[in-house]
Specification:
elongated, 21% strand, two-stranded antiparallel ribbon
């Protein structure tokens, strides 16, 4: 039944073999998870997935692609009193120390406890492997519906049931990746993706990240937006006029990205910036890796740092307005007979006048 999905992952199979020709994926367990929050805990049934066949090809592909597909950095949260301990991390590390159904069921029970009716019935997959010295695990949740499950034998998960679920939702899932060489000191940070979203924001569901995984985004919306705003503002101060104009135009349009999850490279690509403008922004970052950190764009933080746009003319005039409204406040038109001059036109009532000191 899953023959049609195998070609999707054939290119990744070679990359998913460990040292000495040993398959990187070593254990796969799956559990049917009913929402248990405020409804009482339902019995969690699970099974082991064989490391061959069409279903394995699908899950093997998710495991192999997780290195690039999971692009939202998350971190397990410490306890309320600041201790480096996390209940969900403890379950993940215990499972990786000896992957089996009982340890995996503990993770599935935690997911049930933090899932309500809105998240519905789902299949949780635990895909564990070794890559060199590193332990690696991908936790993935696929949606399903109770209508499929009522035909099944209570207390079991059949392969036929799993295949029917996958044929319905094989491209709609949540996943999180953890990888480290040390089970004791590592596994505090991971990366997530939520392919069940219909928005451009790419933000994983709160119940999945905050409640089930007991984690938070590594780069907060305020911190990520602040880094972008400062880099954009400072680059515009130093750049040649043509690049300055390009950057200020991008700054004016930035508010349209409100709520979206992106990194600084995404910002530059979505607004169609030239290579020179992209380089100007990156030159203001502490490292090239900072351009790859994903965050949620916070309009409030952005406007606090890039509130006004100013244009200085050769005749000494300085035109200033809110960044978002500059092009509405000042109409611009080329001066006839001149290649470089622009005429700015505006109108309004005088509500204040100021004399400012030189800076």
């Amino acid at each position: 039944m899953l023959a049609d999905v195998a070609p999707l992952y054939s290119a990744s199979k070679r990359a998913n073999w460990g040292l000495g020709g040993i398959l990187a994926v070593q254990h796969i367990h799956t559990f049917l998870v009913h929402p248990g929050k405020a409804t009482g805990k339902a019995k969690i049934v699970g099974t082991t997935v064989a490391l061959t066949g069409g279903m394995f090809d699908l899950l093997n592909g998710i495991y192999a692609k997780s290195d690039t597909e999971c692009d939202v950095d998350i971190t397990f949260s410490p306890t309320a009193d600041g201790r480096q301990q996390n209940d969900c991390r403890d379950l993940v590390v215990a499972y990786l120390s000896k992957p089996d159904l009982p340890k995996g069921r503990k993770i599935a029970e935690r997911l049930a406890e933090h899932s309500d009716g809105r998240s519905g019935l789902g299949l949780l997959f635990l895909i564990a492997g070794k890559e060199g010295r590193d332990h690696k695990i991908v936790l993935s949740r696929f949606p399903t519906d109770s209508a499929i499950y009522v035909d099944e034998t209570p207390g079991t998960l059949s392969v036929q049931f799993l295949e029917r679920v996958f044929m319905k939702s094989k491209t709609s899932y949540k996943a999180v990746l953890y990888q480290h060489s040390s089970l004791q000191g590592g596994f505090w940070s991971g990366r997530a993706i939520d392919k069940q979203l219909n928005t451009l924001s790419g933000e994983p569901s709160n119940y999945w990240i905050n409640d089930f995984l007991l984690s938070d985004f590594t780069t907060t919306p305020a911190a990520g937006t602040r880094r972008l705003a400062i880099a954009l503002r400072d680059a515009a101060k130093k750049a040649p006029l043509d690049i300055k104009q390009e950057l200020t135009a991008a700054g004016t349009l930035a508010s349209g990205l409100a709520g979206q999850r992106l990194n600084i490279d995404d910002f530059a690509n979505r607004l169609g910036l030239s290579d020179a403008a992209k380089s100007a922004i990156k030159s203001e970052l502490r490292s090239s890796a900072a351009a790859q950190e994903v965050f949620q764009f916070d309009v409030g933080t952005y406007k606090n740092l890039v509130a006004f746009k100013s244009v200085e003319l050769s005749n000494g005039a300085l035109l200033t307005a809110d960044t978002d409204k500059f092009d509405e406040v000042f109409e611009q038109e080329p001066v006839e007979g001149s290649k470089d001059e622009i005429k700015f036109v505006t109108r309004g009532q005088v509500i204040d006048e100021k004399l400012k000191t030189a800076r």
